[in-house]
Design brief:
This protein has two domains: 204 residues, Alanine racemase (TIM Barrel); 122 residues, Lyase, Ornithine Decarboxylase, Chain A, domain 1 (Beta Barrel), CATH 2.40.37. It is of the alpha/beta class. The chain starts with a strand and ends with a strand. 29% of the residues lie in helices and 25% in strands. The chain is built from twelve helices and 19 strands. Strands 1, 11, 14, 15, 16, 17, 18 and 19 form an eight-stranded mixed beta sheet that branches.
Length: 346
C-alpha cells in the first residue's frame, strides 16, 4: 500500500486563465516552474500551461531551464532567475535560455560571451536578496545600455500583505529606476502581487504558487489530492501513549489508525498533535509525533474502518495544512515526497 498524489492539470490551466483574465489587458501572464513546478512535475505542468497560452517561463537554475526546454515548444522564453555564470555559456547558446543578471559580475561575464543574446536584468527593490543595488545601476549604466535587454524585473518582499507600505514604495522605486528604458518590458509581480491591483501588473507577471492552489481566492481552484493508506488499526486503553517519546496519552478508550506517510513525505513534524487527516469530510486528529514514515490518527468517531484517509483535498486544502504546520503553502507543496504514487487528472 502506498500514498497517492493526484494533480489536476485542468485546474492548473483554469487558474492560469483566471489570473490572466484579472490582469491588465496589455499584461503577459507568465508562469514560475522552479523546483520541478513546485514539486508537481514540470514535464506535465509545463506543456499544460503552454497550451493555456503562457509563453514566459521562469525557473531558478540553468538545469531546470534545460529540463523545461525538453517539454515545451520553441516559441517561448525561459528565464533563469538565479543568474548567469560562465558555465552557462553553452546552454544559453544552444537552448535560447535568457539569464536574469543580478550583479555587475554576472553582467560583465554575460557581455564577454553573449553580447547579442537576450538578457533579463533584476533590480533590488528592497528585499536585499538578488538584483542590482542603486549604486551598481549607476556604475553599470553604459554596460546595461549595451545589453540586448528583453525584460527588467523586481521582486516584492511584502506582496502577501496588501496593507504594507513597502509595496507602493517598491513599485515607485522600480518605475523610477527603469524610466530611462521605456521600451523594455517590466515585471514586478509574482502571485500575490497580481492581487495588489493592475498598477502592479506592468508588462509581465510571474505567478507560481497561485497556479497550484496555494493562495486563498475565490477564483482559484484546488489542484492536488493526497491520500494516505491505513496500514493498521487497533484499540487503545486509557493511559497508553502513542509514538516516539509517548508525547500523547489517551484519556479514554480510542480506536487509532497508523497511516503510511511521515516527514519523509512532506508531512511536517510540526503537525505532531495538531494536524488532521480527513475521511469523507470528518477530521481525524494526528496523535503523538509525526515520524519518518508513519502517523497515527484518531478514528474513534468514524462508523467504519477506512482503507485510506485524505491529507489534502476538498476537506483540507494546502492553505489549511500550512496553517496547522505554521508555515507557507510553498513549503507544503515542495516538501511532498517522492514516495507518493503520482497521477494526473485531465
Amino acid at each position: 500500500m502506498i500514498a497517492t498524489l493526484e494533480i489536476n492539470l485542468d485546474n492548473i490551466k483554469k487558474n492560469w486563465l483566471y489570473l490572466n483574465k484579472i490582469s491588465s489587458e496589455k499584461t503577459q501572464t507568465g508562469v514560475v516552474l522552479k523546483a520541478n513546478a513546485y514539486g508537481l512535475g514540470v514535464s506535465k505542468v509545463g506543456p499544460t500551461l503552454w497550451e493555456a497560452g503562457a509563453r514566459n517561463f521562469f525557473v531558478a537554475t540553468i538545469e531546470e531551464a534545460i529540463e523545461l526546454n525538453r517539454y515545451i515548444p520553441k516559441n517561448r522564453k525561459i528565464y533563469v532567475l538565479n543568474g548567469y555564470s560562465e558555465r552557462h555559456k553553452r546552454a544559453v547558446d544552444n537552448f535560447s535560455i535568457i539569464p536574469v543578471l543580478n550583479s555587475p559580475k554576472q553582467l560583465s561575464s554575460f557581455l564577454n560571451f553573449h553580447s547579442q543574446k537576450k538578457a533579463c536584468l533584476q533590480i533590488d527593490v528592497g528585499m536585499n536578496r538578488l538584483g542590482f543595488q542603486e549604486r551598481e545601476l549607476r556604475e553599470c549604466q553604459q554596460k546595461i545600455k549595451s545589453l540586448n535587454l528583453d525584460l527588467i524585473i523586481g521582486h516584492l518582499s511584502c506582496a502577501d500583505d496588501t496593507n504594507s507600505p513597502s509595496n507602493k514604495l517598491a513599485l515607485q522605486y522600480f518605475r523610477a529606476k527603469t524610466a530611462n528604458l521605456p521600451r523594455i518590458k517590466k515585471s514586478i509581480s509574482a502571485s500575490h502581487g497580481i492581487f495588489l491591483g493592475k498598477s502592479y501588473n506592468l508588462d509581465v507577471t510571474r505567478p507560481g504558487i497561485a497556479l497550484y492552489g496555494g493562495i486563498r481566492n475565490q477564483g482559484l481552484l484546488e489542484v492536488i489530492t493526497v491520500q494516505l493508506p491505513v496500514l493498521q488499526t487497533h484499540e487503545m486503553n486509557p493511559g497508553e501513549g502513542v509514538g516516539y517519546g509517548l508525547t500523547y496519552t489517551t484519556k479514554t478508550k480510542k480506536r487509532v489508525a497508523t497511516l503510511f506517510g511521515g516527514y519523509a513525505d512532506g508531512i511536517m513534524r510540526n503537525l505532531s498533535q495538531k494536524g488532521f487527516v480527513h475521511y469523507n469530510g470528518e477530521p481525524c486528529p494526528i496523535l503523538g509525533r509525526v515520524s519518518m514514515d508513519l502517523i497515527t490518527v484518531d478514528i474513534s468517531h468514524l462508523k467504519t474502518t477506512p482503507e485510506k484517509l485524505t491529507l489534502l483535498g476538498k476537506s483540507q486544502t494546502i492553505n489549511d495544512l500550512a496553517d496547522q504546520a505554521e508555515t507557507i503553502t510553498h513549503e507544503i507543496l515542495t516538501s511532498l515526497g517522492t514516495r507518493f504514487s503520482k497521477s494526473y487528472k485531465n
